[in-house]
């Protein structure tokens, strides 16, 4: 089957460069335009189902995609964004000031297993996201399904598909309202396309600044 991974559209937190985890914030006007661009780009696909993180920004994006196909959005907790704990809503400077030891370790080889202060680790996210992906694939063998989710979730799934260490997730980028395509066969995920933003570029709606934390030299 084909699994289309979609990152939600822009929120005020994304626009302003703030850490964003479980805060349930809505899309901005630009985010809604991005969601519509996604809907238009995927309208010609034979989509059997649209799944979403229950967080509002993802669900709003998923609803726009589902509408042309006459589908209801199915929420899946496994697609929820990483719990970033005490970093939610902070700027990168505030993260460094309040949690200098964590930031130092996060920028190193521990990034995959290190839990956010009061939150989850990327390994936690990968485990639940991979299970959600397996559930979706089992339900839609031979079909195409969409999963609307978040930055860390998509990075974790792509790392698994590419057999990459989670600590190397910064080598990947997935913009707001971008799509990636996985071909799932025999229990294996093959990355066919990654971070497609053509539908956004045509309308001047590309992402300005990605989250998560930058490299040490950023």
Q: Would you mind describing this structure in some detail?
A:
A 6-stranded mixed sheet has the order 3-2-4-1-5-6, with helices on both faces. It has helices spanning 12-15, 29-42, 56-66, 92-98, 100-106, 122-139, 151-161, 198-201, and strands at 2-7, 49-52, 73-75, 144-149, 179-185, 188-196. Helix 2 (29-42) packs parallel to helix 3 (56-66). Mean pLDDT is 94; it is low at 214-218. Helix content is 35%, strand content 16%.
User: In order across it, which strands form the biggest sheet?
Assistant: 3-2-4-1-5-6
Number of DSSP strands? 6
Q: What general form does the structure show?
A: globular
Strand fraction band? 15-25%
CATH superfamily: Phosphoglycerate mutase-like
Keywords, please?
218 residues, 16% strand, globular, disordered C terminus
């Amino acid at each position: 089957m084909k699994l289309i991974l979609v990152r939600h559209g822009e929120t005020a937190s994304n626009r302003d460069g703030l850490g964003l985890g479980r805060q349930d914030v809505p899309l901005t006007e630009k985010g809604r335009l991005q969601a519509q661009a996604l809907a238009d780009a995927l309208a010609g696909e034979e989509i059997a189902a649209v799944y979403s993180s229950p967080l509002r920004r993802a669900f709003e994006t998923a609803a726009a995609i589902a509408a042309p196909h006459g589908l209801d959005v199915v929420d899946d907790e496994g697609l929820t964004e990483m719990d970033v704990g005490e970093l939610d809503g902070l700027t990168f400077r505030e993260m460094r000031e309040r949690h200098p030891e964590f930031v130092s370790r996060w920028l190193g080889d521990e990034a995959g297993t290190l839990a956010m202060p009061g939150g989850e680790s990327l390994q936690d996210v990968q485990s639940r996201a991979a299970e959600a992906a397996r559930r979706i694939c089992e339900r839609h063998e031979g079909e195409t399904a969409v999963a609307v989710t978040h930055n860390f979730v998509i990075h974790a799934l792509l790392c698994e598909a590419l057999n990459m260490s989670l600590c190397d997730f910064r080598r990947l980028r997935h913009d707001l309202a971008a799509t990636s395509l996985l071909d799932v066969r025999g229990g294996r995920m093959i990355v066919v396309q990654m971070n497609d933003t053509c539908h956004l570029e045509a309308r001047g709606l590309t992402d300005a600044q990605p989250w998560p934390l930058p490299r040490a030299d950023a």
